[in-house]
Design goal:
single chain, 460 residues, alpha+beta, two-stranded antiparallel sheet
């Protein structure tokens, strides 16, 4: 029988192995998280190339309604909160001063850290250095305030004084700004530069309609955030009555002019400064669909609400009748960190808070990690191990093939083919190095499963 040549596999085998590793990661951790991790380093504008264009972007199908006329906002966007599909936009990544809409990022960053019932004694230093003309809720120094009252001051009155107190509780203004910038990074909000936690006009402080929409979508996954931004009126603690010595209180009302007027409006945040003009991000629900809208810097301050409402009307009418022009990318924070944002303190959550969290829509519920300790969820851990093992196998496989290709071809006679060895000590069908890698991969998976089992027993 004539000798047979050992066939060298195509270099595409290595690519297939790498593809298998990526597939394993997607199947293990879920498509949105895996794709978000891959998109983070992808070239091109975040959310899609069309969102970087300055003109209006919309892709109507037959029967789609026309966009509202006379939209004057320099930048705007309307998206489906559940799917993340951007239905229409203009200048979505244009960097503009955000005004108080930046408080959404502040709340999403800081709110998970403090239980809402915690009381804090306000010091004079915490109310120092507020910007001239800042909006204030009326926090008084040397008096105690509950965290939940401070958050109502942030959302209803857009109180920069309440923001500064919470920022000092969080370690100070500089630390809070750094954490907000880091949080913007995990949300892939690359248009945002944070200089002040309250959105007050500062040189270099910018965001975009796209990024503000990401902040709203992330914040609404927190039941407390959702509750505060939907509150229309509340009682806020005042000073001490000089005659009785008793603590007074007064009414505050949400400055969001659409709240309570636009059907199904959930919130979220409005803003205005001389430099930024008017800014607004809102969320509304109708017939089981939740839409997000952001409008920045229209021709006149009052138009921001009219234009937001008209875009919401259009979005509900156009749903299913337009092709998306872009996508809201997913939060890339580890699942344990995302889960922590579902309440001020997971261990201190009360029954009413748990009930409120259970009422969040499916898109608004954060990923759940195993147990109550920070770290990778079981599926993410297992997927990472599998992907690492497969990637290692692919690398070694490619190296072995290159070495075999560089050596002289080895012929195999028919009687020898069962035990044939290729150059370098590897067999033509995989070799001992490949078998060792396979055993190592199985050991890694077994170790991951054992660790997950131990953690599960520890947290039952």
């Amino acid at each position: 029988m004539p000798p047979k040549r050992v066939q060298q596999k195509s270099p595409y085998v290595t690519r297939a192995a790498a593809g298998a590793a990526a597939t394993a990661l997607v199947l293990a951790v879920g498509t949105p998280i895996a794709l978000a991790a891959l998109e983070q380093d992808a070239a091109g504008p975040v959310g899609g190339e069309r969102l970087a264009r300055p003109d209006v972007q919309v892709a109507p199908l037959p029967g789609a309604p026309a966009l509202p006329s006379a939209l004057s906002g320099r930048s705007w966007l309307v998206a489906d909160a559940t799917t993340g599909e951007v239905l229409a936009a203009r200048n979505a990544h244009l960097q503009l001063p955000p005004a108080s809409t930046l408080k959404m990022l502040f709340a999403d960053t800081v709110m998970p850290k403090f239980d809402r019932s915690l009381e804090h004694q306000v010091t004079p230093a915490e109310l120092a250095n507020l910007g001239a003309g800042s909006s204030l809720v009326g926090v008084k120094e040397n008096l105690p305030y509950r965290v939940e009252d401070l958050w109502r001051g942030v959302f209803l009155s857009s109180g920069n004084d309440a923001v500064h107190v919470l920022a000092h509780m969080n370690g100070g203004i500089a630390q809070t700004v750094a954490e907000m910038q880091a949080r913007a990074g995990t949300l892939q909000a690359k248009d945002t530069k944070v200089v002040s936690p309250d959105g007050y006009d500062m040189d270099g402080q910018v965001s975009s309609a796209y990024d503000l929409t990401l902040f709203a979508r992330a914040g609404l996954r927190n039941a407390d955030f959702r509750s505060y931004c939907a509150t229309r009126t509340a009682r806020f603690p005042g000073g001490l009555d000089q005659l009785t010595g008793q603590r007074t209180s007064f009414d505050i009302a949400n400055t969001d002019r659409l709240l309570g007027k636009y059907p199904g409006l959930i919130g979220v945040k409005n803003g205005y400064t001389t430099n930024a003009g008017a800014t607004f991000t809102g969320a509304a629900e109708r017939d089981g669909r939740t839409l997000l809208v952001t409008v920045m810097h229209p021709e006149a301050q009052g138009k921001v609400y009219d234009e937001a409402a008209s875009l919401l009307d259009w979005g509900f009418a156009a749903a299913g009748k337009v092709q998306p022009v872009g996508q809201l990318v997913e939060d890339t924070a580890p699942p344990a960190s995302a889960a922590a944002s579902s309440s001020a303190s997971a261990k201190a959550s009360s029954a009413p808070e748990a009930a409120a969290a259970s009422q969040l829509p499916p898109w608004g519920r954060p990923p759940v990690a195993s147990g109550d300790t920070p770290g990778l969820a079981p599926a993410l851990w297992t997927g990472a191990v599998l992907a690492t093992a497969l990637a290692a196998w692919a690398t070694a496989h490619a190296g072995a093939r290159r070495r075999a290709a560089a050596a002289p071809a080895v012929t195999v006679s028919a009687p020898q083919r069962g035990g044939a060895r290729a150059a370098g000590g590897s067999s033509g069908v995989g070799g001992r190095s490949h078998r060792r890698l396979a055993r190592r991969a199985r050991a890694l998976v077994h170790s991951a499963r054992s660790t997950r089992s131990v953690r599960t027993r520890q947290h039952r």
